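Figure 2 data, in text form.
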Amino acid sequence: MSDRQQQHVFFVSESTGITAETFGNSLLTQFPGIEFERHYLPFTNTIEKAETLIRELGDISWNTGRKPLVFATMPDPKIDAMLAAAPCHYYEIFERFLPALAEDLGATPSRSSGHAHGVVDSGHYEKRIDTVNYALNHDDAISLKNLDEADVIVIGVSRSGKTPTALYLALHYGLRAANYPLTDDDFERGRLPEAIERNIDKVVAITIDPERLCQIRGKRRPGSRYASLDNCYRETEAARRIFRRYRLTPLDSTDSSVEELAAAIMKQRGFRPG
């Protein structure tokens, strides 16, 4: 498979899909030469939803000549069997490990849904909900209030991966993560808003290759100035000037998964998973 060819990957679950996404993406990082087109399908919990997914898998397989990869957590035996027979390479994560684990433990697994992220500690659960709400309320400069309460503030140009990374930090690590998109106003001033400057010790900068940024923006707004390669070069260079002004060492999201970028932020900021 050449570097230019895309391999479609689906993360499917009857619940949130966090387990399938985390496990699948961890495996995909071992294949850096392949460009993956990721699709996330949580709450695939009815026959109708499964049938819609199978039709999409068939279309992709037919149009590309390559079967999509499907990482799933699917305890429903009917939907599991449907996906296993679909035109895809199917990896049901629990089924790959549960039989051997059950044999080693001498116990029978429950095979019930929703336990991977069940509420074990109500205090822990409430904290995670609070951090997710904080990330949502401070996404893409919705609000610059209460940034002093943030654990980390992720900045970078639009579509450089700030939002999913902030949400991942909130959901998986319990961090209050705000994110801020750099705009033309920031570039003209050559500096960050005052609310962020006051919390510069919490800021993590994200950079991205202009050509990759052009591809990402082109899918969202094809043919626009926003997505043009010239504009992507202009914005990423202007962002680097701001990073240099504040002596920020940017992390590169060009070829990084959300998990890798979040881990790099944890390391740069000196956080330990709790």
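Caption note: The beta strands are 6-13, 35-41, 69-73, 89-92, 152-157, 177-182, 203-207, 251-252.
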